Amino acid sequence: MPIRPRLVLLALALLLTAAGDVLSAPPEHPSWFKQSFLDLAEDVAEATAADRRLMLYFYQDGCPYCALLLRVNLADPEIARLAHERFEVIALNIWGDREVVGLDGQTTTEKGLAAALGVQFTPTLLLLDEAGAVVLRINGYQPPARLAAALAYVAERREQFGERFVDFHARRGGPPASGELHHETGFLEPPLRLADNRDRSPRPLVVLFEQRTCRGCDRLHDDLLRRPALGAALSAFDVALVDIDAETPLQTPDGAARAARDWAEALGILYTPTLVFFDAAGREVFRAEGELRAFHLHGALDYVATGAYRWQPSFQRYLAARRERIEALGVEVELME
Question: Coiled-coil segments, which residues (predicted)?
Fold first, then answer.
C-alpha cells in the first residue's frame, strides 16, 4: 500500500540516527569470520565440504558503510543466522598487503585482488558457488531486508532453479515504499531514445534504474536530489528514468530496441536504485548501486562529470582525495548524512 513520503523520510531519519550511534566506535569483525590462509580455491572446497558457500567481504578501515553492515545488518537475526550458518566469511582489506592465492591459482595481495575484481565500493560482497563462480555480487551497502534476501537466495541455491534474484526479492517483499516512480522535471521524456540522445548531446548520461516498490528510490528523490548541491551536480547530466519491472519499449545507448525490463536484466541490474553512467559515445563508464549518502552520491556524480574516471580508476581514491580537498577548506565532511 502506498505510504506518504514524509513517513518514509521519518523512518529514514530514525535509521540514520541509529547509524550515527553505531558508528561511534570502530567495529570488530565477528569471531566466527573465517581465519583463512587465503588460498581461495581451498576456501571454496572447505566451504563446500561443510555444506556452506563462500562469502568474500571487501572492506576498508574507517568505512562507515562497513560499520553499518557489521553493527546494523548483522544485528538482524535472519542475517546473522544465514551468514553464520550457511556461509564461510572471509574479510579482505581493499588496501591490504596480505598474500592471497586467487581462484585462478595466481598469487597476489588483498589490494591486488580487489583491483582485479573491480571493487569500487566498500563493503562489497561476493557470494560464490561450489565452483568458485560468483552467484551474486553486492557492490556497496544494502539495507537489511535486501541483504537478507541476497543471502537467502544464495544459501537456498535459487540460481540452480533458474530463479532471478530480482524475482526472488520481489516475492519476499520489503519495507513499504511510496509506490511511485519519480519522474522529475528535466528528465528525458519517454519514449526513451538514448542512442539518439548520445548523438545530439555532449553531456554524459545517467540512467536511474528504479522500481515502484523501492524505498531507497523514494529517499533518492524526496531527500538527496532535493539538496541544492546534489541538484546542481545532477544538472551536468542528461537523466533518464527506467522502471526495471516495465515492458516499456526504449532505445538503448548502443541503438538496440529493447523492453525496459530486458535491458535492465542484460545490464545485470539487481538492486534499485542503480545509477548507470554513460559517456558521450554511449559507453558505460561507471555505476553506483548501493545505498549512498550525500557525500558519496555527490562524489559519484562528480567522478563522471569531471572525467576523473579516465585518469583515476579507483573511485575510493578519488573520494579520499575529494574529502581531503573539502576539509582543507575548513569544511567538515559528514559521511553519513
Answer: none
Q: What confidence tens digit (pLDDT) does each residue in 145-187 have?
A: 999 999 999 999 999 999 999 999 999 988 899 999 999 999 9
pLDDT above 90: residue 255: yes
pLDDT band at 24 (very low <50, low <70, confident <90, very high): low
What cell numbers appear for 205 in the block?
Answer: 548520461
Q: Which residues, in sequence order, are CB contacts of 52 under 8 Å at separation 6+?
A: 85, 86, 87, 88
SS3 letters across 18-33: HHHHHCCCCCCCCCCC
User: What would the grid cell of residue 207 be?
Assistant: 540512467
Q: Which CATH number fits domain 194-328: 3.40.30.10, 3.40.50.1820, 3.10.20.740, 3.40.50.150?
A: 3.40.30.10
Torsions phi, psi for 10 (to 5 deg): -65, -45
Domain covering 5-172, topology: Glutaredoxin (3.40.30)
In whole angstroms, give the CA distance from residue 87 to residue 45: 12
What is the C-alpha separation between 155 and 35, in angstroms, rounded?
Answer: 21
Query: Which cell numbers hold the place of 199?
Result: 548523438
- Please report, for the chain, the start and end positions of each structural domain, with discontinuous segments joined by +: 5-172, 194-328
HSE value, Cβ hemisphere, 13 Å, CA-based, for 206: 24
Do domains 5-172 and 194-328 share one topology? The answer is yes
Sequence-distant (6+) residues with CB within 8 A of 334 are: 294, 295
Phi-psi region of 43 (alpha: psi -120 to 50; beta: other; left: phi over 0): alpha
